[in-house]
Amino acid sequence: MAENNTLNTPEISPEEEAKLQKMASRRTGFKKHLAFFVLLNTFLWVVWFFLFRDSSENTFLMAILFVLIVWILIISFHYLIVYKWTMSYKEKELTSLKKMRLRQLQEIEKLKAEMLQKEDTTSDDGQDGETSTDENTKNESFFQRNIID
């Protein structure tokens, strides 16, 4: 009897699968870049050590140092792009807007609860409920105009 491994693993949507494929591709690209960097720079230093170390002219040494420094900067940015800056600016903005909208909705609910509490205390004082309902409607429309939109 064959085992079904799909029962134990969660479903991944096609969009998520494509995102993971892209992330894996970027990470393997970075690892290849890093390996090539290490191999080539090791080769350049070995060449310098055996051929140019005793030379009075240090042009080859300066060239190696220049390549090394520039390439370290490039590899650092490549690392940051692949491993640290994974969210696009659009995704960051969308997340920020969702958080802001959630805070607005929570504030509206809090204000509605305060208005209901205030309405309960005013109706207990003997005022008619119609006046407070009109005020409640005015307040809700004010919140909808100024906070929601």
Q: What keywords describe this structure?
A:
mainly alpha, 149 residues
Explained architecture:
The chain is an all-alpha fold and 149 residues long. It has two domains: 75 residues; 54 residues. The protein has four helices and no strands. The longest helix has 39 residues. The chain is elongated, with a radius of gyration of 32 Å.
Tell me the Rg in angstroms. 32 Å
* Shape call: elongated
Number of helices: 4
Q: How many β-strands, per DSSP? A: 0
- Our measurement of the CA-to-CA distance between the termini, rounded to an integer number of angstroms, reads 60 Å
Structural class: mainly alpha
Would you list the SSEs in sequence order as H and E? HHHH
Helical content stands at over 70%
Round the mean pLDDT to the nearest integer and report it. Answer: 81
Number of domains: 2
What portion of residues belong to β-strands? under 5%
Largest sheet data: none
List low-pLDDT spans. none
